[in-house]
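ok trying again, last paste got cut off:
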Amino acid sequence: MSSANHQPPQTARVNGIDICYEIFGEAGAEPMVLIMGLGAQMIHWDDDFCRQLAARGLRVIRFDNRDIGKSSKMSGGKRLSVVELLKLRFLKIPVAAPYKLRDMAEDTVALMDHLRIRSAHIVGASMGGMIAQEIAITFPERARSLTSIMSTTGNPKIPPPTREAAAVLMAPPPASKEEYFARFAQTWKILRAGSFPEEEALDPARAARTWERGLNPPGVGRQLRAILASGSRKERLRAVKAPTLVIHGTVDPLVRPEGGRDTAASIPGAKLVMIDGMGHALPMRMWPQIIGAIDEHAKGAAAKAA
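nice, full thing came through this time. structure:
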């Protein structure tokens, strides 16, 4: 793909905040919006992953969610406590949050407005999948198709993360650059849930790029609050009309495989693709399967709509 088809990151003032975004692909191609997960910058949609999607005739837009990377930092919401989590789990007392997933869905739709994109193929990973689901529910006319990857419905009956994966989520922020790099490697080793030496070799460079773009630990806490305060989408997902693809790894330690199965079961006509040996990550060796499924789904939805 020529560099002319890759626009460098830009910032849009949308929904009252600044959102940093980047575009891969031809201006006239089918638009596809990629939404990243909790505490993950847009670069977690790897550059080559985006290029490969664009090479299949898609205009790929990735962006930093609010409170992460180069997008606006919000305020409020103290660090999540174990007491609050226990109250939520056993007493069903909701967690307080400065904003919810609905607000993040509105950010995404406002970015589409800014780019004059009436509707797009909406693809979300993890928390991004939850935001993508929210768009398909609340702004149905904006979703040409929905792809929900390693995500869930918010149904409290889904098994919780493994103890190791939960510890990653609840760990206090690293105190130094060295600690951050070590934590980055350790976190992804746990989330990938398998042996991926080719990924581990790239982790230091990925950590450096993330570090350079800027960390915002309180923002990650607010995003986590947004997830917990937003409750279950299970009943509302029955109304989703967008053609839906659900992709999930069979060994995901953070959002358990049941989360993907529940998502597919909750959305009429959804197609479920379980990827053998995939944890809570998008490893390069699984890209052919993942990108192939996303592309086929988008093209199928476009053909149906034509």
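cool. The chain is about 40% helix and 15% strand. Strands lie at 6-14, 17-24, 30-35, 58-63, 120-125, 143-149, 244-249, 271-275.
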